[in-house]
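Q: What does the assembly look like in three dimensions?
Context provided by user:
Components: two
Sequences:
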Amino acid sequence: MATIGNNNLNAKLVLLGDMGAGKSSLVLRFVKGQFLEFQESTIGAAFFSQTLAVNDATVKFEIWDTAGQERYHSLAPMYYRGAAAAIIVYDITSTESFTRAKKWVQELQKQGNPNMVMAFAGNKADLEEKRKVTAEEARLYAEENGLFFMETSAKTASNVNDIFYEIARRLPRAQPQNPAGMVLVDRPADRSQSAACCS
Amino acid sequence: MDEEYDVIVLGTGLKECILSGLLSVDGLKVLHMDRNDYYGGESSSLSLVQLWKRFRANDKPSEQLGSSKEYNVDMIPKFMMANGALVRVLIHTDVTKYLNFKAVDGSFVYNKGKIHKVPATDVEALKSPLMGLFEKRRARKFFIYVQDYEDNDPKSHEGLDLTKVTARDIISKYGLDDNTVDFIGHALALHIDDNYLDEPALDFVKRMKLYAESLARFQGGSPYIYPLYGLGELPQAFARLSAVYGGTYMLNKPECKVEFDGNGKAYGVTSEGETAKCKKVVCDPSYLPDKVKKVGKVARAICIMSHPIPETSDSHSVQVILPQKQLGRKSDMYLFCCSYTHNVAPNGKYIAFVSTEAETDQPEVELKPGIELLGPVDEIFFDIYDRYQPVNKHDEDHCFISQSYDATTHFESTVHDVLAMYTKITGKELDLSVDLSAASAAAE
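A: Here is the predicted structure of the complete assembly.
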């Protein structure tokens, strides 16, 4: 959910797409600047945050990876809940992953958040010689469905930061405030504030 | 599916999902399946359409109630004690980061036909209309004793060994009358019957301390917290934890038949003609009906309202405990109310539940004293379900079956069952001694 305070925007961003399209690789490249040729299926870490400065504001992305729950179509509703942005990832060397990516777009549209910023990422753009999906075809699809499109390569880092910056730029600045809850954390709160008021 | 797993978990109820998460974090290879196409099993939260399908056999809820999707109606309504066992599990596993909570506004108790705020501290005891002047002073002294009691500080024990003296002894030492004991025992210590009176007082005192410490935690009107969007978020969050640590998730798997070898030991689970092998099976009672026995039933009314429960200071979220004696029953009755402020209903709507351990087959009649406290309701549904307990020997059949959820409106008994199952499955104790005094809540 996108919430604002002092020009700081918190935005939940979810990744969708087939196993092996490179969802985790994109995030790892963006958050840590790393790329592993044989990235294992996502284990142990599926929640990242990264802050970007865009124009006059900072955007803190809370990035949710699928943790493999997309494999048997068992992503929980919680995954989509409150997402301000989504990146739907396919592999340009696989028509099947492109077809499946379109299914994920439909799934997202069913969630019915008209303000969600959706990015369509044709990943593995470094593998030009194995390309099966043309950029033109993907761009056309993206335009028809209200997504913005980029071809990315987690391996060479091409367009990786760009796609996140573009999302940050497009996030609506004046979203209705979500009812704020609290997150339980395992560290001492700054008690001085609350204590000071009563003395 | 043709792989071998350490554990196959069947059913995505809260208990099963917590276990799946804990076992995956331990490094075990877990396959988690559910016959339904949604998470949560018995502990899911339903939209209006789902509610209508379940109780009215159609999918056309009245349009005046607003958007179906904005409803998250718990099938097992419960609040979480802010310092309680479930919060410890959430912090221990770091699942908290997937969830947003809000404090529950009020905690009340029914006494002599009226609803009163539950006094939890010496100061509140002095103000409470639940007690007469002299009784207030006696109760105040008892509250101070409980607040000061520390296991490792013998001075605070006032010469009483709480592992030996009974709750009844300590109550008579302070001279509390039956009326006070009734609300302290049921609304503060959250005992579901009066058997605790003849047991060692330590548990009773610790439960009172838990209530008071939870109340102090968030400066809310109650010791309880509740997740935004309803309890159905909890199993999903623990399922995500399990998946993050390599657990495999399959929903909408029909049948889920547990396979046994010649010695009666479970070795796998079959669904849609494929058998996944495993060393152990963990499930809710519905997946192994031959290995459980019925131990009771829960009666529940689910109400959609356009106002808060009367006499609860306009609390948007509230628990009211109706102790057994006040109604001449064998078991307590519970009112539970939540609203749009916890994102479980559209603007202006409230969801209220009346629950009890059923003593008859007529929930409409039995729940009447609770329902009457709600005022007018827009819609009401009645539910009655059987509670089961496992009767199998897990060291022989390698099956670990959870108990059905009880009628209480808090999670203490739920987590107790989960922790006991975890120990049986792994042979280990889960260390939940997270420093809760250091844990706190951050506003988002």
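Follow-up: The CA atoms of residues 125 and 153 of chain A lie 5 Å apart.
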